């Protein structure tokens, strides 16, 4: 059963920057730079990753799908490009994420996507043929995944400090969410 509704996906996309700001804004460095293991992304890494996605992934790929269809494959998305970005204060990155997302949502709205347009095809470098609606659904779930990932990484900072309550906190013993 498919339940994708463009307007509902846009609700998540619109809420994500404010959600990340509410969760991370004003936190100290130990929270923002925590990582339970060397492979985990910090909350700061996650915000930088979301910024890179806004710049190079979602809307550029939508443009390719609507303009070129399957005649022009997407560029490969560098899931770790954020590590090449210079360190900046979190508040600046949250502002940038919010601004980029607002611009991208305005452009998405300007595309006046209808049912047929949501079926516009594109060629993903790993998956082959994909559809625009599926990619927009992925964009929303990607946001939710990284919100959960940031919360999980921060929660794990106190894994050994919660004492016997740990048995009621399964998040602490779950493997980390993949970083991507």
Q: Which terms would index this structure?
A:
single chain, 180 residues, mainly alpha, two-stranded antiparallel ribbon, 2 strands
Structural summary, described in words:
The protein has 180 residues and is mainly alpha-helical. The protein is built from seven helices and two strands, in the order ααααααββα. It has helices at 6-24, 29-32, 43-56, 58-68, 90-110, 115-118, 132-155, and strands spanning 121-124, 128-131. It has a two-stranded antiparallel sheet with strand order 1-2. α1 (6-24) runs parallel beside α7 (132-155), α3 packs parallel to α4 and α4 (58-68) packs antiparallel against α7.
In short:
This protein has 7 helices and 2 strands. It is mostly helical and 180 residues long. It has a two-stranded antiparallel ribbon with strand order 1-2.
């Amino acid at each position: 059963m498919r339940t994708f509704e463009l307007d509902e996906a846009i609700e998540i996309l619109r809420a994500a920057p404010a959600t990340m700001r509410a969760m991370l804004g004003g936190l100290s460095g130990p929270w923002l730079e925590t990582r339970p293991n060397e492979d985990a992304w910090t909350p700061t890494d996650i915000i930088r990753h979301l910024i890179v996605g806004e710049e190079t992934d979602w809307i550029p790929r939508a443009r390719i799908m609507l303009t070129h269809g399957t005649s022009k494959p997407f560029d490969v998305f560098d899931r770790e490009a954020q590590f090449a970005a210079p360190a900046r204060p979190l508040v600046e990155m949250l502002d940038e994420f919010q601004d980029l997302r607002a611009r991208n949502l305005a452009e998405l709205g300007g595309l006046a996507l209808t049912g047929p347009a949501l079926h516009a095809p594109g060629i993903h470098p790993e998956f082959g043929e994909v559809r625009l609606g599926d990619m927009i659904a992925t964009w929303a779930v990607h946001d939710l995944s990284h919100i959960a990932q940031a919360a999980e990484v921060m929660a794990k900072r106190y894994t050994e400090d919660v004492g016997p309550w740990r048995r009621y906190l399964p998040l602490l013993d779950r493997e980390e969410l993949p970083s991507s």
